[in-house]
Amino acid sequence: MRTPFIAGNWKMNLNHMEAIKFIEELSYKIENKNNIKIAVCPSFTSIRSVILVLEDESKKNIKMKIKVGAQNMYFEDNGAYTGEVSPQMLKALGVEYVIIGHSERRELFGETDESVNKKLKTAFKYEIKPILCVGETLKIREEGRAIDFTIGQIRKDLKDITADKINNLTIAYEPIWAIGTGRNATPKDANEMCMAIRNEISILYGSKTAENLIIQYGGSVKPSNIGELMMMPDIDGALVGGASIKVDDFLAIVNY
Ligand code: PGA
């Protein structure tokens, strides 16, 4: 049985003061009716503040544990890489997840499958659980190459990564044309891709590993469409952008 996993990608939103207010309200109101895994991925500058609030809340023993992820990291351990953040730094903060290869990083900041592959290897080395983002552009979908393209990304991104690591991997299928556009993939199309991804993992790593893999859908997920997405057999959760920085929307999504 796969435990559903819903993560909020705050992107470049919420400074540390806003993040504190957000996470206090979220952890006060959250009920986790569905008994799922929930994570938030704040900006680097807000991570420490969010973690401190969550530690404080859990001491009071009143709320479920919301996990914390980062939105990116560098693949080197440390050194002369001005402006980058290392896996060691994230680990020291208590970060449990890291988003790797988000399409905004690939499209706007020159992230390649090669750098994604290096980052995944480093994340596994430090036992930070990566959420690997893959997905096609509108042009590729219209040309009928969406599945081939996305599976190709997975092959390159997971090159030389061994099966024992895959238990700690989450894959997020995020069609680029659906991100921040209000236009989400139909549950059927999203599921078709998630099924193809699971099939590829089965070819690469065996059916048991594939069965256990958590595959999220991302792209304009909101309270009104999460229910039908979560009903699909190969969709195990969501990576939520815009709707994850509004407390009530995020709560409605985790209570789908
Ligand atoms: P969105 O973003 O929900 O705002 O479309 C999703 C993502 O980029 O992870």
Brief summary:
The protein has 256 residues and is α/β, with parallel strands linked by helices. 46% of the residues lie in helices and 14% in strands. The protein has a single domain, classed as TIM Barrel, CATH 3.20.20.
Question: How does this model look, in words?
Answer:
The chain has one domain (5-254): Aldolase class I (TIM Barrel, Alpha-Beta Barrel), CATH 3.20.20.70. It has helices spanning 16-29, 44-59, 87-93, 103-108, 113-125, 138-142, 146-157, 163-166, 187-205, 207-212, 223-230, 247-254, and strands spanning 5-9, 37-41, 67-70, 97-100, 129-134, 170-173, 214-218, 237-240. Helix 7 runs parallel beside helix 9 (187-205). It is globular, with a radius of gyration of 17 Å. The chain is an alpha/beta fold and 256 residues long. An 8-stranded parallel beta barrel has the order 1-2-3-4-5-6-7-8, surrounded by 6 helices. The protein is built from 12 helices and 8 strands. Helices cover 46% and strands 14% of the residues. The site of 2-phosphoglycolic acid has 13 residues, from strand 8.
Average pLDDT taken over every residue: 95
Number of helices: 12
CATH class: Alpha Beta
CATH topology group: TIM Barrel
Oligomer state equals: single chain
| Structural class designation | alpha/beta
Note poorly predicted spans.
none
Notable traits:
8-stranded parallel β-barrel, 8 strands, alpha/beta, globular, binds 2-phosphoglycolic acid, 46% helix
